[in-house]
Amino acid sequence: MSRSVIRNKQFLLRYRLDGSPEENVHAHTVIVGNCGTLTAGILLLPDARPDDGRLDVVVFRPKGFWQWARIGSRLAVARLLHRTRFGTLVLRVTPHFRALQYRQARTLEARFDEPQRIELDGDDHGFVTGVTVTVHPSALTFRSPSTS
User: Fold this and answer.
1) Residue 75 scores a pLDDT above 90
2) Other CB atoms closer than 10 Å to residue 62's CB: what's the count?
């Protein structure tokens, strides 16, 4: 990971959200999920809810060391602030910056000019030149024992 950050190699990402017109950005990393907190309590997707029927997307677009440092500090501060209602409010009113772009949709279609490595839940699944990610609302049913 550290070599990837130091090299900061970016790729052209062509993407479409929910059938909207295609957008193009240069990105280092794209992460799609519906749960906001990673291991160690790192808040990566602040608006993600597993039951809202939407995918949360974050695109890392840093230009150099200082923007990587700013991303790291933003994630570290968010880890602490999201635990309280006041902290959540502070995060919402804090200006976003270009290096960390958040979006939400039911479907993400992405294309790449060069093959890009893809991971699913941390497991490597090789290289792709395109991917479609979709969420199916209410597709998972949870059952728990009765409390009677």
Assistant:
1) no
2) 22
Cite the beta strand spans of 2-122 per DSSP E: 11-17, 23-27, 29-33, 55-60, 100-105, 107-120
Report residue 92's pLDDT band, with 50, 70 and 90 as the boundaries: low
Alpha carbon of 49 to those of 8, 17, 54, 98, 103: distances in Å? Answer: 30, 18, 8, 23, 13
Give 115's DSSP letter. Answer: E
Whole-angstrom distance, CA of residue 58 vs CA of residue 44: 8
Q: How far is CA 10 from CA 42, 100, 104, 114, 134, in A?
A: 23, 14, 22, 11, 24
For residue 114, the Cα-to-chain-centroid distance in whole angstroms is: 21
Q: How far apart are CA 122 and CA 37, in angstroms?
A: 14
Distance CA 98, CA 116 (A): 22
The fraction of the chain above a pLDDT of 70, given in percent, is 81
- Look at residue 108 and give its three-state secondary structure: strand
What kind and span of H or E run contains 145? none
Residue 34 CB-density burial (10 A; 0-12 exposed, 13-18 middle, 19+ buried): middle
